[in-house]
Amino acid sequence: MTFRQILLIVTGVVTFLSQDVTAQDSWHASLVGVGASQTLDTYLSPEKYSGTEIRVLSQTHRQWRKHSQWSSQSSLMGAFLYAEQRAENSNEMGGMLTYDYAILHAWQLRENWRIEAGGQAETAVGFLYNTRNTNNPAQARAYLHIAPDVATTWHFPVFRKQCALRYEMTIPLLGVLFSPNYGQSYYEIFTRGNYDHNAVFTTPFNAPTLRHQLTVDIPIKKMALRVGYLGDYQQAEVNNLKYHTYSHLLLIGLVRPLYR
Q: What region, left, alpha or beta, does residue 221 occupy, with left being phi > 0 and alpha being psi -120 to 50 degrees?
């Protein structure tokens, strides 16, 4: 292989990886999700509770500049769940407010196929309340996660309309989680100020967590109808306590382009 051939190959690879992402990649989505949720919090009960979750999601994906391969994505989610024990003699209600911000780099692999990857910071606060408990009836929840974020978008024609199939996944690698210790009351934490490893460092080993989302955008005039699936699997085992919330949600909402 000659030097000229090597140079042509390298130039082709660089050109392939540096294709521009169009301005159509700036958008805002407003979505509502409804589905099934299962929760476990051994601080409140050793039993698993299953029920319904409703989630509202506002997401903005903004390209930094025209012809730029960099973009930012922010999401604000509000969730509420109501779940029952198997014996149907106890209920749990919970809520969570989550905000995340990601910086992504895009690679236009084909004219209709793009991959994005980057990093994301996510913070959340919420609560879980058990209607049966008299001692320690509620649990506060708060965490901060740092996670890689990967997404891919494929555009395809349906009845002369350009639809978009998008898949996105995040898996937290590092974080900090608030948790009381086993047998520790909130009175001890907040009134007496007795700290007992209540800020816990998390990794995939003690808090394996995954969120992924598969959606389809169907153009409607200047907007698009977005429908899809959101799977959110939050879990941790810290301070001799176990937590998890598994959510499977059907998403529906509207996406509108952001113009410069």
A: left
Burial 193-229 (b: 16+ CB within 10 A, else e): eeeeebebebeeeebbbebbbebbbbeeeeebebebb
Q: What is the rounded average pLDDT of the residues 107-111? A: 89
Give residue 5's pLDDT. Answer: 47
Return the residue matching tokens 């989505």. 29
Comparing 3-17, 103-117, 230-244, which segment has the lowest mean pLDDT? Answer: 3-17
Torsions phi, psi for 7 (to 5 deg): -65, -40
Residue 14's Cβ-count burial label (10 Å; 0-12, 13-18, 19+) is: exposed
Provide the 8-state DSSP code for 22.
P
Instruction: Determine the average pLDDT of the residues in 83-100.
Output: 92
